[in-house]
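Annex B, item 7. Sequence and structure tokens for protein A, then protein B.
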Amino acid sequence: MKLYEIAEAIEKRVPKEWAEPWDNPGLLAGERGAEVEKIAVALDASPRTVARAAERGCGLLVTHHPIIFRPVKSVVDDCHAGRTLIAALKSGVALYAAHTNWDSSPEGVNFVLASELGLKNIEPLVPSQSGAWGLGAVGDLPRGVHFGSLGELLRERWNLSALSLYGNLKTCVRRVALGGGACMDFWPEALALGVQCFITADVSYHPREEAQEAGLCVAACDHGEMERVSLRALAALVAEQTGLPVTLLEGADADTEDGLGGR
């Protein structure tokens, strides 16, 4: 399957138009007419993930985070992006990213996180105005639990090694909001929807203090660990859309060689 055909197939399910205006999803490096037989999926493009994709015979690495955000003035090996792009071009591994368009997909990061947590009545925290599902998610636990117990549930369901809880651990939590990645700015929207706890990553001091003073418990995850929960769903989508074998390089199912896809 040609590289441009793979990009078109993915974008039928996760259109680039769903991305935030500042974002840069889509095909980032590679020859559009190149034939691709196998695909790898990871959270980030790096010299390491590019090498692992190449070792497995994958002509395309699909990631959540784009390696290029801003206009590139040079591609040299004195920075992470330059080293990654050089490694990709040398090894014949094309790069594609599905970022905030995957965040706001009805089957993307936030919906997967909410589903894995076992929330019911799942809705977007911030509904989209562009035809996507929206950013973040809000829903209800099957029953109320103490905030401390919710922390244990998060560690188990999302396979977290890093989690900080801010608030009274005995607070009863039933309604929960979350934002995959850096979404602390959305805590007022969460509060307005009557949640007792907001879960996100990259939580800074002052927004956290404001949220707690307003009555919210805050759970702060590692950014990467939180978003890796959705990688299997992304890999499955790529496999379904292309019919090609897909190797997941990170997450609970990492290195399941050709574990997804293939018609």
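Protein B:
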Amino acid sequence: MLCGACSRVVPVLVLVAMSLCSAADELLCACDVPHCSTPTCTGKVCFVSKRKEDGTITQHRGCFSQHILENCNTPVTEQYGMRCAWAPSAPQGSPSGTGMSLLGLSPTDPNAEPPSSSTLSPPRSTFMLPPTVSPHPGEDTLGKASMVGDSTLEDLLSDDCTTGSGSGLPFLVQRTVARQITLVECVGKGRYGEVWRGVWHGESVAVKIFSSRDEQSWFRETEIYNTVLLRHDNILGFIASDMTSRNSSTQLWLITHYHENGSLYDFLQRTALDVETCLGLASSIICGLVHLHVEIFGTQGKPAIAHRDLKSRNILVKSNRQCCIADLGLAVMHSQGSDYLDIGNNPRVGTKRYMAPEVLSEQIRTDCFESYKKTDIWAYGLVLWEITRRTVVNGIVEEYRPPFFDAVPSDPSFEDMKKVVCIDQQTPVVPNRLFSDPVLSALAKIMKECWYQSPSARLTALRIKKTLKKLNNSLEKPKPEQ
């Protein structure tokens, strides 16, 4: 279990560290250790790293600032059986870093007197990283990393995703998988970067390559996927995350399951739906959203998560025509027990077309987790509108259009959306033909209840899920014989 002070910073740092360390390297992060005497470290999260050279363990202390490592240049010799991994700071050109630094291995003052071990209080809480790597070299994960070629993704995920240490593979295995992927074709481009179909041992995977300006989204998704148990049929399956150097530049990769149908946005462009498929898409999305929104307690638990950028482009359609939610780069986490709201550190905002009125008017209560969940519900209502418009009723169906297509430009500004949603209080027009079908009529009622100006009046994800389950049951009932 991560201790509180390190829980946000460590997972990403260690993944970055794994991009440079060898299979035998190990890292100890100790929380609650004394702060370094160096002024730049005061009040920040400390780390302790140890390296073995010629039988002597050299300990270094430093601290985390964002995702940069600051070394204190105070080596200490102690008898610890640990080796230290190398870790880079933020990539060159990032807003918070200027290049590569080394964890515990930066030049030290040769004239410095090592403090005695008695001046170091033992850490109250330590976390061995990677989370499922044994502290003894050569055990479990190291073996898995070397045998990755003999496994399928299903084998790896079923072995390691029930450990309670998060939904991701051990970091060393993630790195090994990432380095064995061949990029085949680019299947999507956007402001975020590119998505490629890659192949790993004959299996297709999706590789999202983040643009340098969206670096914080990569950090956030990596952090969430590696610290939260998120395995769910309706959440995009995470495989690995890696920082790699290609063509003399740093690339940030997020590797996930591949779904050949693409995004819901793409799927709706080319596919007219029947009522059953429409309901299946809507139900599967809300199941994923409920899983995100709910806090689960216990060793296999998870904090509550609000997505904050739900839209048809961030939802993928699987081969069974069920959906899964993707892109957690803006997600917010909340734990009732500690009443801790983790909003991350991402300057990116959501998609303006899908923003709720309280976001556009800048009236949202940013200190209240419930507020973020309600913005997800507003966006879900818009996605539901997109789906139902593409559903055939009595032989009639509309062409695909994005929400508010008839009210704002193709790339609306914040002010465009604010006028339409907040000042004019418009909502998308629901086609009259939907009301001739009982299921689509019920879906139209739900979407309208997602669009109340007052966030507290909107439905909850759980209420929507229960309503759609009843609709599904009504479709499945055998019709009485004539």
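Comment on protein B: The longest strand covers residues 56-65.
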